[in-house]
Amino acid sequence: MPSSSSTKTRSNKKTVTKKTAAKKTVKKRAVSKKKPTKKTTKKATKATAVVEKRPIDPTTLKRNPLGHLLIEKLLREAGFRGGVSSSKELLDEYSTDESIFSIRPQVVIIPRCKADVEIIVQVITRETTRFESLSITPRAAGTGLSGGSLTDSIVIDMKDLRDMGPITFKNKDYSTFTCEPGLMWRDMEKKLKRHKLYLPPYTSSKDICTIGGAIANNSAGPDSLRYGHCADWVESMDVVLRDGNTYTVKPLTYKQFKSLIKKNHEHARIAREIFELIEKNEKEIKKNEPETKKNTAGYSLWDVIPEGVAKFKKGQGVFDLGRVISGSQGTVGIITSLTMRVIPIQTDTTLLAIPIFDLTEAAETIVKTLKYDPINIEIFDDLTFDLALRNPSFFKSRLHGLTYYKVMLAMYSTYHVRYRGKTPAFMVLVTLNDNSLKADVRDVVKKISSRNVRARIVTNPDEAEMFWQIRRASYTLFIRAITSGL
């Protein structure tokens, strides 16, 4: 390596010159400072007051008003065909979701097609060079409980992207379908039922949520005990990333992954950085993986390379970036299309209803049921049961025709006759099937039961529907009770 004195001298001269220049600049600035007047002092005080208010009441913030005012003009010039609005009524509507938070956006954008989503991202990404705090927050049906769809900048509502393509039948065990993120889960479910199919990780909010929202939150429902979260059922997804381009994200072999990361685009960059992050911190990531059946906190890095980095490099397993996007609530990219796996509706199931009147019996009872590999174990409490009994009209929009009256009859007869006018502290619902029942179901009921806990096989389909209707309505009933002052 070169070490001549001339090299060192030139380096030192440069350093001295820079230091001297810096000192002169500082001195010049110090001399040119004006003595603060009353007017400037008031301005400074006012600015400080605004800064101090921000964390206290974010709904009053008006960040980059000019940037927000220019958005519609810029979008139209770029060919955007959807809706753009900043009307007071609309902003009020988008200021809340099902969480306890309230944050007022500046603009609401409703794309009509996938191309509109690309235009939105391209324009906003470009304009952040002038207006740094501009941001986009995707919104589905607004049923989230964590406030993930709220922002003080721009909301992009995906409700008009709700098409569902035909079902592709792979084999007797599973099929696939492709849909847009704004498709309501209930509409998807109706179409699947015609072919006796279902998506196992359905959530308790399936009557009011969208498929895109469920994936963005990596939701999990009753059957997730056996079948996992929504992310486990994604075959592939189309995602608009920061550069405004759409990329298809799906599990990749090592050979496919190596080919991807050689490219010069946003998908390749994210894949590269995620891989390096996991490779460097693999032990720590695996160590901190939650030991629970249900978990939607944070980014699921432990699921991206399930076989481990070493095996993946040898050609085993896959790299699945979709595991990071699922559950990211739109912070990585905006989903515009989803291909999902579905399976036949199970007909060999048995529902057990286990009323628990003493809470000390709850944990032991559930541990007993886990030994039989149930499809699901769900619970609702006495407050939920009581609210259902007091609000029979609530179920009219969920049940139709004679079914409504049969289910209501089952609810009141269960309460008055079977439980003698007393609501259980916990109602535990357990679904078993032939695969999990290696013994006669009556023997299982005996082993789960104890002196104070009596498990029972539900044979009446109206009673079974009643229990599931109450469970799925638990949150909505609770909110209704609060808002009506019950």
Would you mind describing this structure in some detail?
The structure is a single chain. The chain is an alpha+beta fold. The protein folds into three domains: 58-157, 2-Layer Sandwich (Uridine Diphospho-n-acetylenolpyruvylglucosamine Reductase, domain 2); 168-344, Uridine Diphospho-n-acetylenolpyruvylglucosamine Reductase, domain 3; 349-484, Alpha-Beta Plaits, CATH 3.30.70. The protein contains 17 helices and 14 strands. The strands form three sheets. Strands 5, 6, 7, 8, 9 and 10 form a six-stranded antiparallel beta sheet that branches. A hairpin with a 5-residue loop joins strand 5 (168-169) and strand 6 (175-179). Helix 3 crosses helix 5 and helix 15 packs across helix 17 (461-484). It is globular and about 70 Å long.
Essential attributes:
globular; 3 domains; Uridine Diphospho-n-acetylenolpyruvylglucosamine Reductase, domain 3; alpha+beta; disordered N terminus; 486 residues; 17 helices; Uridine Diphospho-n-acetylenolpyruvylglucosamine Reductase, domain 2
